[in-house]
Specification:
The chain is α+β, with helices and mostly antiparallel strands. The chain has two domains: 15-114, TolA/TonB C-terminal domain (2-Layer Sandwich); 129-203, TolA/TonB C-terminal domain, CATH 3.30.2420. 34% of the residues lie in helices and 24% in strands. It contains six helices and six strands. Strands 2-1-3 form a three-stranded antiparallel β-sheet, covered by helices on one side. The longest helix has 16 residues, at 24-39.
């Protein structure tokens, strides 16, 4: 046992930067997936800007202490960025992980979006109305535990089947954050084009 003690002490001294499932590449992957929603915060900016954001990922994958640096720290762009970043969820880790990430907002982003297919309300590809309604029913059972009231939502099902550009209205901040997180985690059959969905969810915290 005495021979093991120095080894254990040495291991304990190594900083645990990320726990299982929270590697640097995984953090970047999740941030890239969340980027379109954050970019919408800068839709009114005429020039292309880099907005640096600092935040802390807790051991359960939640985001805390979001801070927007620079000129937009206290304006509507910064507040929007804080909301969107605060709604991101990561994998579990062994200790809190600090992150600083640069988001590109405004300017060239508008030009880039022109080349992307606009979301459509028509279902296509592998996404059928039956599939959509069935999956939304499952999601609704999960979302209703976020709080109380009726959450009006709008989101886009991407060509990959992932959900992006989630907007939640008519509920308080924490409830909206919970609803946004659960919707962002949903996966649908891949449509031929990005598909815009507008749906209300009845919430019941009981």
């Amino acid at each position: 046992m005495r021979r093991l003690l120095p080894t254990l002490a040495a291991l304990a001294a190594v900083p645990a930067l990320a726990g299982p499932g929270l590697s640097k590449s995984r953090v970047l992957e999740i941030l890239r997936d969340a980027t379109p929603a954050v970019e919408r915060c800068g839709s009114d900016l005429r020039e292309r800007e880099t907005v640096n954001v600092r935040f802390l990922i807790d051991v359960e994958g939640g985001v805390h202490a979001v801070k927007v640096e620079g000129a937009h720290a206290d304006d509507h762009v910064g507040r929007c960025v804080k909301t969107q970043v605060g709604a991101i969820r990561f994998s579990h880790g062994t200790k809190p992980t600090p992150v600083r990430y640069p988001f590109k907002l405004g300017g060239a982003q508008k030009d880039a979006k022109r080349s992307e297919p606009a979301p459509t309300n028509k279902l296509s590809g592998n996404l059928t109305k039956k599939d959509l309604d069935g999956l939304l029913k499952i999601i609704s059972d999960d979302v209703q535990r976020c709080g109380a009231g009726v959450a009006q939502t709008e989101f886009t099902i991407k060509k990959t089947g992932k959900v992006g550009d989630v907007q939640v209205r008519d509920v308080d901040f924490e409830t909206g954050r919970c609803v946004s997180t659960k919707l962002s985690r949903a996966r649908f059959p891949a449509p031929a084009k990005p598909t815009l969905v507008q749906r209300s969810f009845n919430l019941d915290e009981g």
